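Chapter summary example.
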Amino acid sequence: MLVLSASAVLATPRTKAQMQAAARQAINQQRSARHLAPSATPLEVLRSTEQLEVIGTEDGGFAVIAADDAMPAVLGVSTAHYSNGQNRNFEWWLQATAEAARQQARQNSPLLETTPDPRLYPVEVNPMVTTKSDQD
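The structure predicted for these 136 residues follows.
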């Protein structure tokens, strides 16, 4: 008897614990970069969709976490307060990111991340214009 087997990479949903851990680590890394103490406030889900969760604290700081491992765990992080739908630009970004995650999950394969070679590309680019925003 001949048995053929195909090895496939299957994208799987992240557990709540994995998502909470990724959010905690991302928020505390962001806080550390701003010379703030790690947050001891318990994390809570501030917004949840099929593709992503916004996890953070009421006193400020949140992370956007992909619900499926076809995408990187941390899609975004901020030390600001979550706007809860009041920032239209952020809402657009959330919708676009959710659609990208939906399409990637349909393909059932992990998104390949590319990191530019710092020897070939500058790590930082000076601002070309000055803007004023309502975000921190």
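To summarize the output: Strands lie at 44-48, 52-56, 62-66, 74-78.
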